[in-house]
Amino acid sequence: MLSPEINRLLTEVSPGTGMGNALRRYWLPALLSSEVAEPDGAPVRVRMLGEDLVAFRDTTGVVGLVDSKCPHRRAPMFFGRNEECGIRCVYHGWKFDAAGNCVDLPSEPPDSIFKTKVNILAYPTWEGGGIVWAYLGPRAELPPFPAYEWLRAPDTHVRSSKTLEHANYLQALEGGIDTAHSSFVHNNDLGNASRLKSQNTHPQLEVEQTGYGFRYAGIRTLGHDQKYVRAYQFFLPAMQMRAAFIDGQGEPRKTQTLRGHIWVPVDDEWTMVYNWVCGADGDNPISDELWEKHEKAAGRGADDFIPGSYRLKRNLDNDFLIDREMQRTRTYTGITGLNTQDFAVQEGMGAVCDRSQEHLGTSDRAIIVARRMLREAVDDVAEGRRPLGVETDELRLVRPAEAILDGPLPWQEAMKDLLSAQW
Ligand code: FES
Ligand SMILES: [Fe+2]
Q1: Spatial separation of the C-alpha atoms in residues 55 and 35, rounded to whole Å
Q2: Which of 22, 125, 143, 316 is the most buried (most CB within 10 A)?
Q3: Sorted alphabetically, which keywords does the UniProt record give (predicted)?
Q4: pLDDT tens readout for residues 199-224
Q5: Which domains does the chain possess?
Q6: By mean pLDDT, which of 196-205, 329-338, 373-382 is the weakest?
Q7: Which residue CA neighbors atom 1 of ligand 1 most closely?
Q8: Which burial class, exposed, middle or buried, applies to 406 when counting CB atoms under 10 A from its CB (0-12, 13-18, 19+)?
Q9: How far is the CA of 70 from the centre of ligand 2 (A)?
């Protein structure tokens, strides 16, 4: 349970808010690289952290991320001409490069020095994992580029996508680190008691703080002294990583992968969820077929989106097309798509969940720690300190893992190698 004040503190993201300031100290995904595939191609609207921006790939391939409005008389840069290393406002032709400098001002006399005085708000960008990352914080605090393991894997081994969710980023994030829910909301095989997550629906949760956030394990005792351990990683401010090494019946998967979500606030009520999959090692490339299958199972197949958008056709407006007969006989929710099931419970809470009404149990331990660490990040920034996880080598070295363990060794020891980055 949170007081309404703390709930607001953790969920408001616009410029000048406590959490808005904290989030702006990290590199965050701004758009997919594929949205600006071509140099000098069409500009793209981006809304993040309550700011309206426009992205464009310039002639040299650099991605600019600038204010959505022209600094002259506020015309929309989205209609701009992306040409010869800059974006030109169509109203009076003022042109800006990817760094925000004004490079041409054709409506002013040729000898005007006004050009040196005017520029457009621009944020630094960096590309990795098929994603354009942006840093929206103060320049003096610019952190090193993101160094997560999956960003070092070859292109053949990494895929990413994104989905728009009508919910505040925090309730989406909390869904992602809530390992207990998978026994229920994602049970798509009712009556199959041999399913690993159905054998034990009350995982014991262990959370360990790290220099980048925390790692946590959902431990399900299976009988015969066996334990099914899913060890996750949580990176501040809003990224989860999990491993898919074994299938629902406990057998090794054909292709072993690391997977994750990054929850980027569009504003207080909407979230862009970035999804990625990375092969666990050189033997596990991600084929087109595997990726399409994964996205389809998640509820993000090509046909699942409202055309021209990142919003799913199944959404709260149509009750996620819940099928009550399917719910009665085959799946726990009657809703198709693994992540669509997540969206159903998260969007259904209301755009910003009222946490003063909740009752947390032992399975919510990771959520409690995440909230505490986010509050600490807000305090750190407010008091002039660098928040946790902005600059640490530790995050380069880790990965999530899952295993079935027998024997007395604690999971941290038994899974030590599995939890070390391979790329
Ligand atoms: S409003 Fe953009 S150039 Fe005038
Ligand atoms: Fe889920």
Answers
A1: 9
A2: 22
A3: 2Fe-2S, Dioxygenase, Iron, Iron-sulfur, Metal-binding, Oxidoreductase
A4: 788 888 999 999 999 999 999 998 87
A5: 28-134 (2.102.10.10), 149-414 (3.90.380.10)
A6: 196-205
A7: 73
A8: exposed
A9: 41
- Phi and psi at residue 305, in whole multiples of 5°? -95, 150
Handedness of CA 283, 288, 294, 298 (dihedral sign): positive
Does ligand 1 lie within 6 Å of residue 91's CB atom?
yes
3-state helix, strand, coil in the chain (%, to 5): 30, 30, 45
Q: Is the peptide bond before 237 cis (omega within 30 degrees of 0)?
A: yes
Query: Would the CB of 332 count as within 6 Å of ligand 1?
Result: no
Mean pLDDT of 89-114: 95
How far is Cα 31 from Cα 126, in angstroms, rounded to an integer? 11
Residue 220 CA to residue 202 CA, distance in Å, equals: 7
d(CA 125, CA 54): 12
Asked if residue 205 lies in contact with residue 216, where contact means CB atoms within 8 angstroms, the answer is yes
**Does ligand 1 have an atom closer than 6 angstroms to the CB of 72?**
yes
Tell which residue, 387, 359, 361, 363, has the closest CA to residue 375. Answer: 387
Of all residues in the chain, what percent carry a pLDDT higher than 70?
A: 100
Question: Three-state SS string across 237-271, please?
Answer: CCEEEEEEEECCCCCEEEEEEEEEEEEEECCCCCE
Q: Alpha-carbon distance 374 to 120, whole Å?
A: 31
Residue at token pair 């959505």? 68
For residue 90, the CA-to-ligand 1 centroid distance in Å is 7
Identify the CA nearest to 234 among candidates 255, 213, 217: 213
What is the number of other CB atoms lying within 10 angstroms of the CB of residue 204?
A: 15
Q: How far apart are alpha carbons 149 and 290 in whole angstroms?
A: 21
Q: Give CA separation, 367 vs 64, 372, 392, in Å.
A: 35, 9, 23
Residue with tokens 């309206």: 52
Render pLDDT for 2-58 as a digit per residue (tens, 0 to 9).
Answer: 999 999 999 999 999 999 999 999 999 999 999 999 999 999 999 999 999 999 999
Number of H helices, E strands in the chain: 9, 18
CA–CA separation, 125 and 32 (whole Å): 12
46-68 confidence digits (pLDDT tens): 999 999 999 999 999 999 999 99
Which backbone phi and psi does 157 adopt, to 5 degrees?
-110, 0
